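Worked example 2:
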Amino acid sequence: MKYIPALFSLLFFTSCNFSIVNMGIIGIIAMFALMLLLFALMFFLIIRRKKQGEKSLVKFNNDVYLALNKLSTPQQKVNMLNTLIERINNDEKYKKDTDWRDKVLVKIYMHQAVVYYQMGDEMQTLNVCTKIIELDPEDSMPYYNRGSIYSNMGMYEKALQDLNRTIELAPDYAGAYNNRGSVHEKMEHYQEALSDFDQAISIEDSPIAHYNRGNTYYELGEYNKSLNDYHIALEKLGDSDQSNLRKEVEASIKIVNDRLL
């Protein structure tokens, strides 16, 4: 792209030597045609560089994933990722292109969040999600993951803030509505919870959303509606391997049936 400014300067300096009147209509058309051509060329080069960058990121992400799979313990994986983060932050080439550096770091932090989550370290997972959000505030998933962790920790107001942001960025993501509904249910905001579960079911008719809505109906004393959702959840589970959820649904059905006797 280095030659583009030179072409522009040639065009502008040449145009200063005579007036637009002397150029004539053909000259004016030719000038604008050349300008359009240059803009098109710039756009093409930018797009090509972006695509090459995206391919590089995908390859880098895959390489990190394969390297992590060769390590036997979670702590070894954490150490590898921390070393990688340190090298990138200290590399002079990355310091000259901070946008690219941040994109690379986001990929590493995503792997790090998964490792910490698998280790059961919610606090570290939370911290890594926050780092990802700082680097890429338009990505919905770190908000969703952090909001889910806040919910597990009983920090419901913070959970709602993150899940609200998730839905702003990804309004068709059923999981966000389902999780926000669960937070509302824990806060005894039952109507808000029902509204979120309804939305989750309309997007993705999953057994967990029916089960959660059934729980909310139960809290409201609407046992028939609760029982209906539990049966739908059980039917949708079918032969799936979600044995823990099936046990919870079956236990809930028994409790409601006992209530209705």
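Confidence is low (pLDDT under 50) at residues 1-22, 43-47. Residues 1-53 form one domain.
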